Amino acid sequence: MQTLLPVLLALIAGLCVAVQAPTNAMLARSTGSLWLAASVSFVGGTTLVIAAWALIDRTPLSAVRQAPPWAWAGGLYGAFFVAAVAFAAPRLGLAFTLTLTIGAQLTAAVLFDHLGVLGLDRSPVSAGRLLGVALILGGVLLVRR
């Protein structure tokens, strides 16, 4: 049961990414502005996250001072992701765009786990992990064809 909730949330998050890309792409196409669409997306997301923090969590805002400076950059990566995928999805197709991003994510994840960067516990590269990434990258090529 302890692993069921994180697995379920990860699966739902994956579905949300698949829906987010065409939603933001449509907003960009409708408005004629990728940047306006990304901004609207982030305003909506920020509103939801702030409401959840205020209603559920209530950790003091001063707690963010304890985070290392690099930890403040997460929103920048998310903003780039949202804009890049909204731009790429209508041009490359949703499946190819998302398989590219998943391939890049898994490659980076295996490397980051191996090196223990960004505060992660070290998890050495194994033959199984390399094979898994190779299969995903092969899937990127198959989806493209």
Looking at this protein, list some descriptive labels.
145 residues, mainly alpha, 5 helices
Please give a structural write-up.
The radius of gyration is 18 Å and the shape is globular. It has about 140 residues and is an all-alpha fold. It starts with a helix and ends with a helix. Helix 1 packs across helix 3 (about 75-90) and helix 3 packs antiparallel against helix 4 (about 95-115). Helix content is about 75%, strand content about 0%. The longest helix has 28 residues, at about 5-30. The protein has one domain (about 5-145). It contains five helices and no strands. The chain has helices at about 5-30, 35-55, 75-90, 95-115, 125-145. The relative contact order is 0.09.
- Proportion of residues in β-strands: under 5%
Major β-sheet annotation = none
Please mark out the parts with pLDDT under 50 across 5 or more consecutive residues, or reply none: none
Structural class assignment: mainly alpha
**Cα-based radius of gyration, to the nearest Å:** 18 Å
What is the number of independent domains?
A: 1
Overall pLDDT confidence: 90
The residue fraction in helices comes out at over 70%
Counting DSSP H or I runs of 4 or more residues, the number of helices is 5
Number of distinct beta strands: 0
How do the helices and strands follow one another from N- to C-terminus? HHHHH
Q: Could you tell me how far the N terminus lies from the C terminus, measured between alpha carbons in angstroms?
A: 39 Å
Shape: globular
